Amino acid sequence: MTEVIIVKNQEEAGQIYGRAVADLIKAKPDAVLGLATGSSPLAAYQALAKIVKDESIDVSQVRGFALDEYLGLPLEHPQSYHSTIHRTVVEPLGLDPEKVHVPGDILNGAPLEDGDKIALAGPAYDRAIEAAGGIDVQILGIGTDGHIGFNEPGSSLASGTRVKTLAEQTRIDNARFFDDDINQVPTHCITQGIGTVLKARHLVLLAFGSGKAEAIEETVEGGVSAFCPASALQLHPHATIIIDEEAASRLRHKDYYRYAFAHKPAWQGI
Ligand code: GLP
């Protein structure tokens, strides 16, 4: 079963992620972290940064691969995921920027029309992840429509990294980062595919607030369906979903998830 952990708040969720990843880095100093943008993972990155500092953990060898990027934004644009990942993860954790990759890095704002360049970027990114030995822990947020990365409803559950068209709802949701102006939100993106995400050895999905309750219900207790891309986590042998009470509010088996986590042997970790 996908493990569901219901927490009080984002800080508690962040602590669980931070501890797991810190222990991973201690055991494997060149661990490969799958990184995500959005507000949901922020407390998790902060918790990890604090543990890294408090326990003087050497992160100089840690490698990272982000999930996705807008198409058409130059890397230095403040809302490009390249900039966002550097601001929210690379700097606070003190990672080596050379070792952290974002899918649009080799495109650097190339327009959608530049098909030759753009069509090659996805497969090249998947090859780079494979060459690094695969992702050890992939952190994920979830869109209100159930998307992970930028895999919108209908995305192939076997997809690799590729260009996608953003859903209108996603552009509306993300307009808050673009002066509340949907016209400034790019229409296309490059995203790790669902098949790419499923290859990571451990998936940790974080969701908070009532706005995510429906997507979480479909993800955890609905059928596996491309209509809810996050439901693909049900196919993964090691997926952990950490959510607050509001995001969990529509789950039918909440009591069981709580009971199972409370009785989990400590040695199992998450
Ligand atoms: C964007 C990102 C996703 C993220 C989602 C939810 O669409 N591409 O990776 O999960 O936003 O963001 P938030 O966590 O801010 O709700």
Automatic annotation (TrEMBL):
GO terms for molecular function: glucosamine-6-phosphate deaminase activity; identical protein binding; isomerase activity. The gene is nagB. InterPro entries: Glc/Gal-6P_isomerase, Glucosamine6P_isomerase, Glucosamine6P_isomerase_CS, NagB/RpiA_transferase-like. It comes from Bifidobacterium reuteri DSM 23975. Pathway: Amino-sugar metabolism; N-acetylneuraminate degradation; D-fructose 6-phosphate from N-acetylneuraminate: step 5/5. It comes from the Bacteria. Pfam families: Glucosamine_iso. Belongs to the glucosamine/galactosamine-6-phosphate isomerase family. NagB subfamily. The active site is at D68, D145, H147, E152. This is Glucosamine-6-phosphate deaminase. The keyword DNA repair does not apply. It is an enzyme of class 3 (hydrolase). It catalyses: alpha-D-glucosamine 6-phosphate + H2O = beta-D-fructose 6-phosphate + NH4(+). Its EC number is 3.5.99.6. GO terms for biological process: carbohydrate metabolic process; glucosamine catabolic process; N-acetylglucosamine catabolic process; N-acetylneuraminate catabolic process.
